[in-house]
Amino acid sequence: MGWLVPGQTVPELDRALQHLPEGLQQRPLASRYGWHVVSIDQRREGRALPFDQVIDRVRHSLREQATRRALRHYLLALESDIGVEGIVLDDDAGGSLMQ
């Protein structure tokens, strides 16, 4: 997969990866997307970058978060308005965007 940074994978996988030693892991890791065979080849300490070097990534990340939250609330409103059953959404997009 190349280099991963915290927040690049789903939270449950991120948490597990932070605590694993280098090398091929003895057991696969579970996430909401299935099982993952993990081999950690190397770890590097991160460093803070100047804002002007990361502004595009920050803008993209914030836009992505807002879009996901808005879509989640839209789907929940549709569920409520037309009585659709069986929709299960993650609860990680708290806060009300729609009245």
TrEMBL record:
It holds the Pfam family Rotamase. It catalyses: [protein]-peptidylproline (omega=180) = [protein]-peptidylproline (omega=0). PROSITE patterns: PPIC_PPIASE_2. InterPro entries: PPIase_dom_sf, PPIase_PpiC, PrsA_foldase. The keyword Cytoplasm does not apply. Keywords: Isomerase, Rotamase. SUPFAM superfamilies: FKBP-like. Residues 1-42 form the PpiC domain. The keyword Iron does not apply. Its EC number is 5.2.1.8. Transmembrane segments: none annotated. Belongs to the PpiC/parvulin rotamase family. This is peptidylprolyl isomerase.
